[in-house]
């Protein structure tokens, strides 16, 4: 008889969350103990980047707030998720992001802003949109005018039929870079260019996507938390005012393009596939696909046909 290898048993760790006792396997994060915590740069298929700090909580005895997404629980830890210090920090993160980027398609942002009382407008009206962010060089920052909030607004990059990069929605969480690079795709088509406020996600030499190393796997779209990266179909429907997630059904099926058999989740609105994602808990693909699984749905229904 073939035995099924079992993982070694994990010790359990006792902590408290807002005074309630919680028991978790050793190695769990604070986020595992507090699953409702807001997150942006955290991805369940990626190594935590600790970039956004919206997930911070207070831990008794710790000098600073700690990121729930990456900090592991320790025996006896007393975690506080709703102190004034936590609320103030989350409010500030939302205000800084909301004053400089477009969070209108970020799931959760509107609710969190209301919950924490974020008022991005107190930084002033949005400053002039920059049209030349790709041309900026490290150190060549524009001086703020002191009256308006600095912004990363810029035209969306629509340079191919499959996906759109709308970097005025980008919060620089680096998840797309990690998914394209060493953590999943190993294509390294995109990276971080510039420094400070002019830091931005870019292809090599800011080349249009069709001239870059991109293989159109769309694994960057899968992890983007703000909608800065989106299917062209979604981008067009949002522009037309027809995108409506409340009218969309999701059906998970198996890709038939090759023998690997990746899971595809088809998002269907009005009997049309409008985008494709992939379950993150699939032990083989972890939410990743290739161009055929991700974008091949356009062969099922030619969107340009009348
Ligand atoms: S589609 Fe794939 S290859 Fe292209 S930038 Fe995104 S992750 Fe990289
Ligand atoms: S494009 Fe999306 S995933 Fe990439 S850094 Fe910006 S917000 Fe993050
Ligand atoms: S979600 Fe934890 S630091 Fe961004």
From TrEMBL:
It comes from the Bacteria. The keyword Repeat applies. Keywords: 4Fe-4S, Iron, Iron-sulfur, Metal-binding, Repeat. Gene3D superfamilies: 3.10.20.740, 3.30.70.20, ADC-like domains. Residues 161-180, 206-234 form the 4Fe-4S ferredoxin-type domain. Signal peptide: none annotated. Residues 103-153 are annotated as: Disordered. SUPFAM superfamilies: 2Fe-2S ferredoxin-like, 4Fe-4S ferredoxins, Formate dehydrogenase/DMSO reductase, domains 1-3. GO terms for molecular function: 4 iron, 4 sulfur cluster binding; metal ion binding; oxidoreductase activity. Residues 248-304 form the 4Fe-4S Mo/W bis-MGD-type domain. Residues 130-144 have a biased composition (Basic and acidic residues). PANTHER family: HYDROGENASE SUBUNIT, PHOTOSYSTEM I IRON-SULFUR CENTER-RELATED. This is NAD-dependent formate dehydrogenase iron-sulfur protein. It comes from Actinoallomurus bryophytorum. The lineage of its organism: Bacteria, Bacillati, Actinomycetota, Actinomycetes, Streptosporangiales.
């Amino acid at each position: 008889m073939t035995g099924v290898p079992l993982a070694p048993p994990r010790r359990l760790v006792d902590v408290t969350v807002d005074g309630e006792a919680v028991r978790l396997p050793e190695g769990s994060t604070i986020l595992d103990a507090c699953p409702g915590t807001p997150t942006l740069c955290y991805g369940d298929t990626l190594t935590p980047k600790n970039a956004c700090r919206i997930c911070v909580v207070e831990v008794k005895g710790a000098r600073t707030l700690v990121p729930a997404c990456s900090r592991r629980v320790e025996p006896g830890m007393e975690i506080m998720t709703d102190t004034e210090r936590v609320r103030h920090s989350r409010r500030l993160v939302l205000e800084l992001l909301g004053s400089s980027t477009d969070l209108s398609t970020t799931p959760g942002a509107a609710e969190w802003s209301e919950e924490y009382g974020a008022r991005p407008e107190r930084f002033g009206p949005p400053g002039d949109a920059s049209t030349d962010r790709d041309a900026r060089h490290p150190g060549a920052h524009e001086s703020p005018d002191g009256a308006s909030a600095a912004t990363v607004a810029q035209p969306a990059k629509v340079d191919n039929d499959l996906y759109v990069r709308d970097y005025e929605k980008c919060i620089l969480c680096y998840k797309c870079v990690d998914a394209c690079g060493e953590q999943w795709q190993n294509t390294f088509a995109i990276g971080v260019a510039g420094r400070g406020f002019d830091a931005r996600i870019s292809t090599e030499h800011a080349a249009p996507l069709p001239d870059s190393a991109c293989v159109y796997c769309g694994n960057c779209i899968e992890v983007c938390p703000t909608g800065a990266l989106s299917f062209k179909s979604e981008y067009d429907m949002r522009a037309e005012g027809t995108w409506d997630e409340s009218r969309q059904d999701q059906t998970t099926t198996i890709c038939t393009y090759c023998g690997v058999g990746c899971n595809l989740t088809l998002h269907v609105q009005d009997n049309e596939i409008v985008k494709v994602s992939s379950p993150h808990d699939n032990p083989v693909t972890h939410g990743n696909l290739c161009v055929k699984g991700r974008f091949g749905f356009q062969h099922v229904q030619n969107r340009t046909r009348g």
